[in-house]
Amino acid sequence: MQKIKKIFKYFKYKIFAKYRKGYGVHSPFLYHFVRENLYGNRYFYAFDDIAELRYDLLCSDEKISVTDFGVGSEKMKDNIRKVRDIAKYSAVSEKFGEMLFKTVEYYKPKTILELGTSLGIGTLYLALPDSKATIYTIEGCPETAKKASDNFKELNVKNIKQLIGNINDKLPELLNGIDKLDFVYFDGNHRKDATLNYFYQCLTKAHNDTIFYFDDIHLSEGMEEAWKEIKKNEKVTLTVDLFFSGIVFFRKELSKEDFTVNF
Ligand SMILES: C[S@@+](CC[C@H](N)C(=O)[O-])C[C@H]1O[C@@H](n2cnc3c(N)ncnc32)[C@H](O)[C@@H]1O
Question: Could you tell me the pTM of the whole model?
């Protein structure tokens, strides 16, 4: 039933969402965001490196024992999972990964946090645009985190700091030790309470130019409620709903508006 509802919502989004390629957008900020990061055809060699790595993972027969702290997976019920299935069902897609890369390359955040590393595909899209940025990434499952670490080594990426443990414990520890967050990718534990808890914690380190990126905002009723509450927060100005994810800006120079952009 949940799945049928989501398919219905997706069709509704595809029919009614506007601003494809930036057409009709009045906000200059949003126009540039859409043109450059959603529909811009900027190409980077790193896209091929990540695509090759993903291909290798999708061909892997290796099995690992997974400890799941989140809502789990609809597709993978067993705790012994094939790496290829994790790559297929948990990793960010190429389309959204490249959009993340372009967004990071465009706004140049220096302190980046990812909640939920999985195999590290999303982490690489965040880390490869700028070797001087620091990417903190938290993963609860030790065996999955080990695979991610191997992937970072394979691509010789040095600006990633992995934290292994429950986000509930690791996030407050990390926030205690850093001054600010420039970009946060919320992609672990897709429950309403957890999402809001992580949002309010990260908000304490957000500033005018910070960007928050939430995955799976329409996954469930709970996630819909969390997204609504986030949009309403007084510090939040412009938000962009891309159906599979939502982007939040805090820039005071922007008016408080919520956009749904066809992507
Ligand atoms: C959807 S996957 C992340 C995908 C990755 N961000 C990407 O873009 O490729 C979610 C990951 O979050 C981890 N996770 C979920 N809840 C967690 C929690 N409470 N603490 C730590 N890790 C958690 C899961 O083990 C899983 O590997």
Answer: 0.94
Ligand 1 center to 68 CA (angstroms): 8
Confidence (pLDDT) at 71: 64
Residue type for position 185: Y
Ligand 1 centroid, distance to 257 Cα (angstroms): 29
Q: Which atom of ligand 1 is closest in space to residue 67's alpha carbon?
A: 25
User: Is 148 touching ligand 1 by the criterion CB < 6 Å?
Assistant: no
Write the residue with the smallest CA distance to atom 14 of ligand 1: 188
* Whether pLDDT at 28 is above 70: yes
Summarize pLDDT for 38-64 with one digit per residue, the tens: 998 899 999 999 999 999 999 999 999
- Class for the domain spanning 2-260: alpha beta
